[in-house]
């Protein structure tokens, strides 16, 4: 795996974490 592929994988993981955080916030807004 070269550095560029590792960078893309890390970026994908960051995007997934951000999306999960947004979904969690939306659920909190709905249920409160």
Low-confidence stretches: none
Percentage of residues in helical conformation: over 70%
Element order: H for helix, E for strand:
H
Mean pLDDT: 82
Tell me what you see in this structure.
This protein has 32 residues and is an all-alpha fold. It is built from one helix and no strands.
Briefly summarize what is shown:
91% of the residues lie in helices and 0% in strands.
Which terms would index this structure?
32 residues; mainly alpha; 1 helix
SSE order and pairing:
Blueprint: H1 3-31
């Amino acid at each position: 795996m070269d550095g560029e592929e590792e960078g893309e994988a890390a970026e994908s993981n960051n995007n997934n974490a951000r999306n999960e955080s947004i979904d969690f916030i939306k659920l909190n807004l709905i249920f409160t």
